TrEMBL record:
It is a multi-pass membrane protein. Part of the tripartite ATP-independent periplasmic (TRAP) transport system. Keywords: Cell inner membrane, Cell membrane, Membrane, Transmembrane, Transmembrane helix, Transport. GO terms for cellular component: plasma membrane. Belongs to the TRAP transporter small permease family. It comes from Pseudoxanthomonas helianthi. InterPro entries: DctQ, TRAP_DctQ. The complex comprises the extracytoplasmic solute receptor protein and the two transmembrane proteins. Pfam families: DctQ. This is TRAP transporter small permease protein. Its main location: membrane.
């Protein structure tokens, strides 16, 4: 098998992972709206505010934020230094295109590592209001960081794929 075939398979796999990431982030947003809607109804209509809504809302918010940021990395809409790169001459612009995914990989790995440490560190502490560990909000952050690193690594295969406006300026 050729290297191009392996790269295209890898890219298709990364694209599928990104699709699932976007779907989970969207589901978390919908869940957040539903949980907060229930909180408002229970508090103001039923006068019986449930205690579980705040920790669940924070978990859903952390999930939507972390996975949404990772999906933004995949689509090159997050952690993309395009304004700076566009202001540079062609040679430094190419260097900036290589520096951007490297920066994303380092930041994503940093977030993934330390979020995982914090997640495991607080597993034994119960959260107030819900039968969840206090550190559960670090789990989506760790997953989002790992996905950012993965998607950043995937961008190295496409360093020569310049945005249309940048490619036109270089010719």
């Amino acid at each position: 098998m050729s290297t191009d075939t392996n790269l295209s398979r890898l890219q298709r796999s990364i694209d599928r992972i990104a699709g699932v990431t976007i779907a989970v982030a969207a589901a978390a947003l919908i869940g957040l709206v539903l949980v907060q809607g229930w909180q408002v109804i229970a508090r103001y209509v039923l006068n019986d505010s449930p205690s579980w809504t705040e920790p669940v809302t924070l978990l859903l918010l952390s999930t939507a934020m972390s996975l949404g940021a990772a999906a933004g990395v995949h689509t090159r809409r997050h952690f993309n230094f395009s304004l700076l790169a566009d202001a540079l001459a062609p040679a430094p612009r190419r260097a900036m295109r290589a520096l951007t995914p490297a920066t994303v990989v380092v930041i994503g790995a940093f977030i993934a590592y330390w979020s995982t440490v914090l997640f495991f560190d607080g597993l034994h502490i119960p959260a107030a209001g819900a039968p969840l560990p206090q550190s559960i909000n670090y789990l989506p952050l760790a997953l989002g960081g790992a996905l950012m690193a993965l998607f950043g690594l995937g961008q190295f295969a496409h360093l020569d794929d310049a945005p249309a406006h940048a490619a036109a300026e270089e010719t």
